[in-house]
């Protein structure tokens, strides 16, 4: 427990410090988190980290993470992120032929989905922070409120299992409690932060963030159970890997970004 608390304090302080600072240091952090998250998924599948297909997937992840303003500045005018991604996907599919199907279509699909899942999740982490620090902190605090509420209310009142085949400890009562805590935090933040949205809209956003954050957690639990592992990695002692800590965040931030730019 002491190790878990110490890791949480140090990692949390570093993350929040870079969030507040923003700019290129936060961008580098996002790239680091995204690439580590990608490699955690590759290890689950037991693919060679330094194989041609894994490196192509890493490049695809980097393309997905890269902000548009950065890609526009380094790529020719006629070529964008979409075109680069398509070429990398075609190379992955071609590799199935080169290896005579020892690297299968299923393996290629896994790499593409992993790259997009992690890459776009962290891409929108950067884009949302770029919109403004308060726009970034709102979903972050809502997710933390959901996790805390679901844990404590589920622990004290939980009786009905939410999805026992995937996550046996989660309960319906805890899930509802997490949503209620998210709404309370959204109401508080709407009065504290200077966001350009009504309280009603922020409450609706918080409910969606809470629901999709819990879904992101279940998705993480589902593929860990499928691959027979406890944690996605060991980078954070007492906490697991990057995906164990950022599963809800990267699942919800693309949705929050879309809701905030509509």
TrEMBL record:
Top enzyme class: transferase
UniProt catalytic activity: a 1,2-diacyl-sn-glycero-3-phosphate + CTP + H(+) = a CDP-1,2-diacyl-sn-glycerol + diphosphate
Membrane topology category: Multi-pass membrane protein
GO MF entry, a single one: phosphatidate cytidylyltransferase activity
Residue ranges crossing the lipid bilayer per the database entry: 6-35, 47-67, 79-98, 105-124, 136-154, 175-193, 199-219, 240-260
The keyword Nucleotidyltransferase appears for this protein: yes
Protein location: Cell membrane
Pathway: Lipid metabolism; Phospholipid metabolism; CDP-diacylglycerol biosynthesis; CDP-diacylglycerol from sn-glycerol 3-phosphate: step 3/3
Signal sequence, start to end: none
GO biological process: one example: CDP-diacylglycerol biosynthetic process
Domain of life the protein comes from: Bacteria
GO cellular component, one term: plasma membrane
Keywords: Cell membrane, Lipid biosynthesis, Lipid metabolism, Membrane, Nucleotidyltransferase, Phospholipid biosynthesis, Phospholipid metabolism, Transferase, Transmembrane, Transmembrane helix
Enzyme Commission code: 2.7.7.41
Pfam families per record: CTP_transf_1 (PF01148)
Family note: Belongs to the CDS family.
Name used for this protein in its record: Phosphatidate cytidylyltransferase
Species this protein is from: Gottfriedia solisilvae
């Amino acid at each position: 427990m002491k190790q878990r608390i110490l890791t949480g304090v140090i990692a949390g302080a570093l993350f929040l410090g870079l969030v507040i600072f923003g700019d290129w240091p936060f961008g580098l952090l996002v790239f680091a988190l995204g690439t580590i998250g990608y490699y955690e998924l590759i290890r689950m599948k037991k693919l060679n980290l330094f194989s041609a297909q894994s490196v192509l997937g890493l490049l695809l992840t980097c393309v997905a993470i890269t902000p548009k303003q950065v890609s526009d500045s380094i790529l020719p005018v006629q070529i964008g992120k979409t075109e680069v991604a398509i070429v990398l996907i075609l190379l992955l599919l071609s590799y199935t032929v080169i290896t005579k199907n020892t690297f299968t279509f299923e393996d290629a699909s896994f790499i593409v989905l992993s790259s997009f899942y992690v890459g776009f999740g962290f891409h929108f982490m950067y884009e949302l922070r770029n919109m403004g620090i308060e726009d970034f902190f709102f979903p972050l605090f809502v997710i933390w409120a959901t996790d805390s509420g679901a844990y404590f209310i589920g622990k004290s009142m939980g009786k009905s299992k939410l999805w026992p085949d995937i996550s046996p400890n989660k309960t319906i009562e805890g899930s509802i409690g997490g949503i209620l805590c998210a709404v309370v935090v959204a109401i508080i933040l709407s009065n504290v932060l200077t966001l350009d949205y009504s309280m009603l809209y922020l409450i609706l956003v918080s409910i969606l963030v809470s629901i999709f954050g819990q879904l992101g957690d279940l998705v993480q639990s589902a593929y860990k159970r499928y691959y027979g592992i406890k944690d996605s990695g060991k980078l954070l002692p007492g906490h697991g890997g990057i995906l164990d800590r950022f599963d809800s965040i990267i699942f919800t931030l693309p949705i929050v970004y879309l809701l905030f730019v509509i």
